[in-house]
Amino acid sequence: GSAAESLSPPQSPQSACPSPTAQAATAWSQPDQGSSNLDEEGSSTWEEPEVTQPSLQDKLHVKVADLVVFLLLKYRNKQPTHQAEMLEIISKDYQDDFPVILGQASECMRLVFGVDVKEVDPSDHSYILVTVLGLTCDGMLSGEHGMPKTSLLVLLLGVILLEDDCAPEGEVWEALGVMGVYAGKEHIIYGEPRDLLTKVWVQEGYVEYRQVPGSDPARYEFLWGPRAHAETSKLQVLEYLLRVNHRQPGSSLILSEGAVSDEEEGA
């Protein structure tokens, strides 16, 4: 299908931040082990004979993973944070590298989890964590200690746009399958996605899930729901997808300039 062919996988650990995404997800699922788990994972790869010492870039990846886990906890607890607190997490030895580490961690938070890290007071470098694109859902299922799933919602909205505002269910699962998200299969970040797409986000008003008129046997399709129309715009979702795509060298997500300019005119 067109969406599946054109949608590249933003969640692959090779995208926004190579190993930190996988490391952060692992650490998040095993919180008792804390950052030591990350250190062990990071160090295990340096035991190969030809590599004697981790490079600075590899050390930074581990620090990015540590920071992502910390920011996810802040997001879950709806707490702000500040630079001093983040430096405690990554070690003050990395103060000079802080802008790079925060930049990579922020990109991970945005593209993998759908959470923006926003500086609210430059004087004391304080930050808040909010969902992307003005969406008001927090991406967390009530009573669940999983990870934010907002990015998957934005990608679903994007697939619907790429299918001319009405996406057959088969096309949706084909597109999401490109990034390892399958109905009935547990995903490390998104959990089992079928209920999310066909029930949770339908109840929240973000998508419509309806039978294709006259289909026998019954086929289903997805459309934007009223809450999606109220809280975000096609242009914002297209820009998000373009940014995801920008992180994927050689990816094939092609959004015509015409589609974006048409949306700008209609905005």
TrEMBL record:
GO cellular component: a single term: nucleus
Originating species: Leptonychotes weddellii
Signal peptide (residue range): none
Region (Disordered): 1-55
Domain of life, source organism: Eukaryota
Organism taxonomic ancestry: Eukaryota, Metazoa, Chordata, Craniata, Vertebrata
Gene3D superfamilies in UniProt: MAGE homology domain, winged helix WH1 motif, MAGE homology domain, winged helix WH2 motif
Residue span, MAGE domain: 60-259
Biased composition (Polar residues): 28-37
Gene Ontology BP, a term: negative regulation of transcription by RNA polymerase II
Protein name per Swiss-Prot or TrEMBL: Melanoma-associated antigen 9-like
UniProt feature, compositional bias: Low complexity: 1-27
InterPro entries: MAGE, MAGE_N, MAGE_WH1, MAGE_WH2, MHD_dom
Composition-biased stretches (Acidic residues): 38-50
